[in-house]
Amino acid sequence: MIADTTMKCACKSCDCVVSIADAIKKNDKYYCCQACADGHVDGKGCGHQGCICG
């Protein structure tokens, strides 16, 4: 069986799909960027095209 290598960013408002190998892991969850991993404390979104999280 081949393991999945991508998953949706753990940020609830983020639409990004992230490679597990490249993701930021925090509290056993995978995020597309530091802003998502930190819960958007600075108010900035991830900045990825088409995503409006933040």
UniProtKB/TrEMBL annotation:
Keywords assigned by UniProt, alphabetized: Metal-binding, Metal-thiolate cluster
Keyword Metal-binding on entry: yes
Any single Pfam family the record assigns to this protein: Metallothio_Pro
UniProt keyword Metal-binding, yes or no: yes
One example GO MF annotation: metal ion binding
InterPro entries listed in its UniProt record: Metalthion_dom_sf, Metalthion_fam14_prok
Origin: domain of life: Bacteria
Protein name in the entry: Metallothionein
Signal peptide: none
